[in-house]
Amino acid sequence: MADVVIVGAGHGGAQAAIALRQNGFAGSIEVIGREPEYPYERPPLSKEYLARDKTFDRIMIRPAAFWADKDVTFTLGREVETVDAEAKTVTTDDGAVHAYGSLIWATGGDARRLTLDGHDLGGVHAVRTRADADRLMSELDAGAKRAVVIGGGYIGLEAAAVLTKFGVHVTLLEALPRVLARVAGEPLSEFYQAEHRAHGVDLRTEVAVSALIGGNHDRSDKVVGVRLADGHVLPAEIVIVGIGIIPAVAPLIAAGATGINGVNVDEFCRTSLPDVYAIGDCAAHANAYAEGATIRLESVQNANDQATTAAKAITGNPVPYKAVPWFWSNQYDLRLQTVGLSIGFDATVTRGDPATRSFSVIYLKQGRVIALDCVNAVKDYVQGKKLVEAGAVIAPERLADASVLLKEMI
Predict the structure, then answer these.
(1) Contact 268, 309 (CB under 8 A)
(2) Alpha helices, H only, 241-395
(3) pTM over 0.85
(4) 175: left (phi over 0), alpha (psi -120 to 50) or beta
(5) What is the pLDDT averaged over residues 189-203?
């Protein structure tokens, strides 16, 4: 038995173990992860790791010796299949039963897969794990030169940017009228669409895919094309699918935890099951920066901050989760930094000139600043956080005046 069992060895799981020790927890800690590796950073998988700017050892969250020093035990390469909330045990796919005093569920989510014909062909990739990225890299090494990316969210855009670096011809397909439509305003979407096209990406919006096509002489299990809804076929040796994730919470829901899109948690990251917490991508929580709406946040910030919240609750010092959301994305030589949540915005202000490739999009709701997207604009990002925290009401024309620092508007 472990005093705390953490299911999931990603950002949230790693930070939960660290935060427990930082908060004076002296009991036993076991982390169960389904991948064979110790915890590593996920965002570089579609950025620096895929681009080979960083080796795997450079994206490890902590070296193996750190975990031994902190007396944190790992069970790797195993997946939890069932949870018994009454007996306070979890059972892994090898039949082993792990008892716990408190359970922290930090499993994140699984890449959403296509359901159309050919979805399971070789050469069809997600970019969610190290193994995913390694498989993709091996095909690049084998000489693949034509790729189709399905999905114009951050994962798809980041992967497209990296592939162009290797001389791959990339076609990016987005079903909606613009990329990033679910997470950003039109000014940001238009900027990134123009950037990708300028870098040679054949970016198409309002395009539906009807099937993936296999068959290439003796390699019939390998993707060779993508058929669009209009019947046109795009040649492809690689297909990357970036259409979101499905929260990995089935065992918890089966055990009686409440939740529909993920598992529901309170302000201390407690689920409806006794002594069971959930954090990170899979945890649906009421967020103050979404006006109290129940949402899931898929970000390193959220995983780490909720991990600390759960650790404090377990160690008897409960502090409600109130962290300001933030996020980043690297594409080409562009560094996007986001603070706040633009959900429900009713106006945008563009600060600076996108043509200079350094500008910010400020999101307003009923006159209040609720979020900023800052492209190569670090000062706006740092200073804009205060505006988001305060829900500041500032005239749009003043926000747009890049000659005035945002900190002077608080």
Answers:
(1) yes
(2) 250-254, 300-314, 378-390
(3) yes
(4) alpha
(5) 98
